[in-house]
Amino acid sequence: MGHSQAEKAATRERILRAASRRIRTDGVDRPGVAELMQEAGLTHGGFYKHFNSRDDLITQAAAFALSEGTAKMERSARKNPEDARAGLIDAYLAKQHRDGPATGCALVTLGAAAGRGDQQIQQAYENQVRTYLDLIAGLDEDADTPRAEAMLTLSALVGAMLISRAVADQDFSDELLETVAEQLTDRTSCEPPTDA
Fold first, then answer.
1. Does domain 3-189 correspond to CATH entry 1.10.3720.10?
2. Whole-model pTM?
C-alpha cells in the first residue's frame, strides 16, 4: 500500500472510530456529517473521499462499533483465568461500562437502530450476536446446553446494561448490575441438584 493509500486508510479509520463513538452515545439519527467530520478532526469537504453518503458512513460506523466489541469480550473473559465466564460477566456489568457508552458494547446502544435499520446494519448486528454467542458458549464447557446458556447470558448482559443506563436512580442502577452479575455467575457455579 502506497503512502497516500495508507494515509487515506488511516483517515477513514479515524472517521469510523469517531462516528462509532458518537452513534453509541447519540444514536444513528442525530449526528450530521459536519459534526462527525469535526469530531474526527477533519473538514466536511473531505467526507466524499471516504464515503458515498451519510447513510454509508453510519452503516459502516455501526459495523465498526459492533466488531470492536469482540476483542473487549475476549479480554474480559481472560481477566479471571479460573472462571472466564465470571470474568466476562463482571467486566460487562461493571459500572465503568455503564458509564462509558461511547466505547461500550454496541449491542446495547444500537439494538433499536438495528431493528429499524437497513439490512446491512441488521446483518452486522446479527453477526456480532452470533460471535458473542460462540464466545460465551465456548466458556461454558460444563453446561448441558452451552448455546442456550450463552443466549440467556448474552440477553441478560445486554438487557441489564440497557436498563441500568436508562433508569434515573443511580443506586437502583447499581443494584441491577450487581444482582444480574451475581445471578448469572451463580447459575453455572452452583452444583446441580441431587435426588434424595
1. no
2. 0.86
